[in-house]
Backbone:
């Protein structure tokens, strides 16, 4: 099992937005996450790559408060997450765009966006929504239509924009490129880059390793509920055991395969 | 194909994995023994207690009937009392002496007016008509999803109440039908109760029952395995209808009268409460619920009758029994929704066995 | 001939309106919680008894107390019986709802007895008014008006307010709504409160019409309303209202069309017609988007 590689950049010292230690997530008798440590600091982009069933979604769900961990500690901005009700997680500055987009198909586009801002009481909500329409004219055109009529890519834009409307410190995304055509994926990742440039931290779970590497400051490779590799994207890509790490072949302590 | 293999695994796990016919039959034997013990004890009791126990046994048959459908399919039915009503009226009409019929039901169709069937014939006819009604009504019903199906069964109850209550020529409408031959005593009820338990057990052990239980857990996976859910549910519903019909027959021939008002919401609540309190998912639960609730009802009734100390009578206000009973059911649902038996069947030694029949954990 | 037609139309809309209010109350709660609230019948009962208590003082006071009684009871039931079961499977919720309904009814019988009590509530409404040259009962016009107003008001609330939006989102995908920060307790309590308001309105109109209060007074309405909810489409709010209206309308139409000796069987025919609808369209007339029982 790999200890977390803490970023050595001194600028990144300080309270991480999310700090996870020894996380274990079970579904009934199946253990999805076997004991994982991870940190996400302000402003940085972290990617978790790995194959299907690696436990990536479970990890994200635990941080988002959607599932309760069997063991381990999660701290959001220094405060423990334990005992916080699901609706209050977003009030701590964590927003998530879960796998499969999960937009409200029966509600209109603008209603979906308003829901993203439902925890806010300030007056800037309408302006933020207008900005979304400015960035994505297609959403603006369809603002009063049921969101279920949007294409897959448009729904993904909507889901991400909706999550951003709560003005989070950290945006988590589960498989943002899943099921989308390459051209659409490009658009999605452009959006993520612009979000990053606004200073929002990103935690992205991806099967599409190439995309994730292009975006992230740090990458974790997850397989079968454990992190098998961690580091900067360039290092990981060059690592001769990347494929093995991705697919979960056992590794020796020096990083080579047995 | 993860879904199908897990459903297949579940079907296998649901099938008894413990070898030996004895282990497999243990629940049946124990439950039958329980019934016999209850009846044996009641024999020595005063007449009034015997009557209560007999009524309790009839309720047991009704609960077992309800269980055959609800326990196996996972769909709650509010309509079984309608089948009881049908069984009661059919058997009453076929077995009542012609003289009584001409007094109470002058407009009865000739065939029925002249019918004078033997008791067993009437009982079987009652059960059969109830089963037939279940088949007809169930045909559209079983296509509905769980909750919609439950509400639809509620509609069945109401329709039967309205229809039977207004079909004055045949049923006497709102009036009581009197002069129904009384032949149901302690041992008749017990015999039928044992028959009901055997039928229910046979069904849940059969291939049909096992497949239905698999679909109870995961409809999609079961369907992927080729289980015809609608067909399976319907067969459970029909058997359930038959047993409920028989319960209705016995009630009619125990009380000597048939009243449509008997077969409505209060009885529905009683039967469902018995099943819920005992445990919806096992035959043990159904039988336990009937026994426990009957005893409890007896206690509450005593409380309402009161205790006479000297010249004063200390009694609970009328209606307290009902309220307490309803509260009990609510508490069970809140704090022990699986009921007394949990999901499990009783085994030998008499301890609830895990996963022998039912959801493996 | 015109009189007959107008009278029938008035009947259809007043009975239909009453049922629509009832089904909407039931449908709202089903939408957010997947719970069929059998105890809705008891909400109507509670409101009815509140009216009984105060109608002699003043009609306005009676109506206000009916509203308070129904809303309060609804919130108590939610807190005591359904909140502990949040997230349970629909079958358990159904049983709990049934048990709660029975308990409250039996408790009421214990407290006030089961005999119906007569009262003369809003007697001036039994007068007649002239509509399109036809004399029609004032109460029926009021029923239509109240139903329309409440339906519009509820729709406005759901569409135009933040809380209403949260409720609609929760009805479609409860978990995702929570992820976005929607507070479940508030949304559900609101749904129950609104259903209480609707139940109180129905109770007042019903009491004015029948002149009776008894522990089972809401039962007939609610049983038929359940079926209306299923026809309209479980989980769909417009479907609920539509289903209720149609069912109410059907009772009037059947009454008019059936020969006299078959009229008592009106409900039986109604349910058979309902079964036919369900056979061909099991998801209901206005299927709810995002409503799935499994997967």
Residues:
């Amino acid at each position: 099992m790999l200890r977390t590689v803490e970023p050595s950049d001194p600028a990144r010292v300080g309270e991480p937005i999310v700090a996870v230690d020894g996380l274990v997530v079970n579904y009934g008798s199946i253990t999805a996450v076997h004991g994982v440590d991870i940190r996400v600091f302000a402003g940085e982009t972290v990617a978790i790559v790995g194959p299907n069933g690696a436990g990536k979604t479970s990890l994200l769900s635990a941080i988002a408060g959607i599932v309760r961990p069997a063991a381990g500690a999660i701290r959001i901005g220094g405060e423990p997450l334990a005992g916080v009700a699901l609706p209050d997680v977003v009030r701590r500055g964590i927003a998530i765009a879960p796998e499969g987009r999960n937009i409200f198909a029966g509600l209109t586009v603008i209603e979906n966006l308003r829901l993203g801002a439902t925890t806010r009481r300030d007056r800037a909500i309408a302006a933020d929504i207008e900005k979304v329409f400015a960035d994505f004219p297609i959403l603006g055109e369809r603002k009063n239509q049921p969101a279920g009529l949007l294409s897959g890519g448009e729904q993904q834009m909507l889901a991400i924009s909706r999550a951003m409307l709560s003005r989070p410190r950290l945006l988590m995304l589960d498989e943002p490129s899943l099921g989308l055509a390459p051209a659409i994926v490009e658009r999605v990742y452009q959006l993520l880059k612009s979000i990053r440039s606004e200073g929002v931290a990103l935690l992205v779970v991806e099967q599409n390793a190439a995309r994730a590497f292009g975006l992230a400051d740090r990458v974790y490779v997850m397989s079968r509920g454990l992190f098998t590799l961690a580091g900067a994207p360039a290092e990981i890509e060059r690592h001769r055991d990347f494929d093995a790490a991705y697919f979960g072949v056992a590794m020796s302590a020096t990083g080579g395969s047995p | 194909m993860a879904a199908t293999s897990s459903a297949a695994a579940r079907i296998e796990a649901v099938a008894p994995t413990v070898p030996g016919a004895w282990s497999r039959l243990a629940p049946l034997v124990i439950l039958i023994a329980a019934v016999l013990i209850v009846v044996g004890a009641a024999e020595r009791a005063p007449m009034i207690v015997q009557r209560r126990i007999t009524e309790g046994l009839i309720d047991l048959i009704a609960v077992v009937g309800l269980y055959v459908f609800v326990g196996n399919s996972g769909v709650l039915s509010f309509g079984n009392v309608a089948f009881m009503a049908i069984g009661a009226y059919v058997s009453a009409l076929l077995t009542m002496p012609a003289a009584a019929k001409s007094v109470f039901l002058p407009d009865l169709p000739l065939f029925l007016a002249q019918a004078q069937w033997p008791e067993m014939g009437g009982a079987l006819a009652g059960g059969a008509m109830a089963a037939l009604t279940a088949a007809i009504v169930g045909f559209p019903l079983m296509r509905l999803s769980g909750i919609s199906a439950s509400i639809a069964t509620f509609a069945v109850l109401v329709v039967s109440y309205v229809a039977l209550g207004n079909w004055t020529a045949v049923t006497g409408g709102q009036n009581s039908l009197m002069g129904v031959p009384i032949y149901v005593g302690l041992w008749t009820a017990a015999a039928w109760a044992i028959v009901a338990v055997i039928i229910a057990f046979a069904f849940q052990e059969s291939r049909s029952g096992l497949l239905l239980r698999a679909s109870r857990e995961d409809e999609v996976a079961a369907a992927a395995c080729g289980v015809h859910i609608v067909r399976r549910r319907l067969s459970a519903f029909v058997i359930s209808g038959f047993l409920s019909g028989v319960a209705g027959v016995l009630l009619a021939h125990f009380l000597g009268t048939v009243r449509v008002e008997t077969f409505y919401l209060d009885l529905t609540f009683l039967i469902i409460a018995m099943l819920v309190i005992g445990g919806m998912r096992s035959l043990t639960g159904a039988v336990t619920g009937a026994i426990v609730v009957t005893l409890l009802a007896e206690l509450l009734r005593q409380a309402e009758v009161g205790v006479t100390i000297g010249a004063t009578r200390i009694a609970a206000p009328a209606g307290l029994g009902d309220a307490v009973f309803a509260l009990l059911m609510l508490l069970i649902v809140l704090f022990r929704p699986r009921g007394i038996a949990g999901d499990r069947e009783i085994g030998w030694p008499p301890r609830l066995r895990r996963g022998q029949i039912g959801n493996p954990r | 001939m015109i009189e007959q037609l107008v009278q029938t139309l008035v009947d259809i809309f007043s009975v239909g309106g009453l049922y629509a209010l009832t089904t909407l109350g039931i449908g709202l709660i089903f939408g957010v919680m997947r719970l069929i609230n059998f105890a809705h019948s008891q909400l109507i009962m509670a409101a009815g008894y509140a009216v009984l208590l105060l109608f002699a003082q003043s009609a306005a006071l009676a109506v206000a107390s009916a509203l308070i009684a129904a809303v309060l009871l609804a919130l108590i039931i939610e807190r005591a019986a359904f909140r502990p079961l949040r997230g349970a499977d629909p079958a358990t919720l159904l049983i709990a709802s049934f048990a709660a309904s029975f308990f409250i009814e039996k408790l009421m019988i214990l407290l006030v007895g089961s005999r119906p009590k007569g009262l003369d509530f809003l007697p001036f409404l039994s007068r007649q008014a002239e509509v399109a040259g036809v004399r029609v009962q004032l109460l029926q016009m009021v029923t239509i008006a109240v139903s329309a107003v409440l339906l519009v008001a509820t729709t406005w609330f759901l569409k135009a307010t933040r809380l209403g939006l949260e409720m609609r989102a929760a009805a479609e995908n409860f978990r995702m709504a929570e992820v976005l920060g929607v507070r479940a307790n508030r949304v559900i309590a609101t749904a129950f409160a609104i259903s209480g308001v609707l139940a109180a309105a129905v109770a007042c109109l019903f009491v004015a019409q029948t002149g009776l209060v008894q522990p089972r007074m809401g039962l007939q309405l609610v049983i038929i309303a359940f079926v209306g909810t299923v026809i309209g489409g479980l989980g769909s709010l417009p479907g609920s209202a539509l289903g209720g209206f149609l069912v109410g309308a059907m009772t009037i139409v059947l009454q008019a069309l059936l020969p006299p000796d078959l009229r008592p069987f009106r409900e039986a025919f109604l349910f058979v017609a309902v079964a036919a609808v369900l056979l061909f369209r099991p998801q209901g007339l206005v299927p709810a988007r995002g409503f799935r029982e499994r997967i």
The first helix of chain A runs from residue 56 to 64. Chains A and B do not touch (no CB pair under 8 Å). Chain A has one domain: 14-247.
